[in-house]
Amino acid sequence: MDIKLYGTKRCHKTHHYIEFLNNRNLNFKFLDVEKNKEFAEELRQLY
Questions:
Q1: Tens of pLDDT along the chain (47 residues)?
Q2: 2, 14, 32, 42: which one has the fewest Cβ atoms less than 10 Å from its Cβ?
Q3: Could you tell me if 6 and 43 are in contact, meaning their C-beta atoms sit under 8 angstroms apart?
Q4: From start to end of 1-47, where are the E strands?
Q5: CA-based angle 12:16:17, to the nearest 5?
Q6: pLDDT at residue 2, rounded to an integer
């Protein structure tokens, strides 16, 4: 199972999380909420 990482390319925290996951060789799927409204809605549904 891959980790879902919601974020944006310009967010410094997103870059930190990507680096963290890559350094640990963890599989993840980056879901850009600025480029895809469906990802943004998925993220809102989590709250």
A1: 689 999 999 999 999 999 999 999 999 999 999 999 999 999 999 98
A2: 2
A3: yes
A4: 3-7, 28-32
A5: 120
A6: 85
Domain extent listing, the chain: 3-45
Virtual torsion, Cα 16, 21, 27, 31, nearest 10 deg:
-10
Tokens representing residue 38 in the block: 């469906």
Helix (H, G, I), strand (E, B) or coil at 18: helix
Looking at the chain, the number of H-run helices and the number of E-run strands are: 2, 2
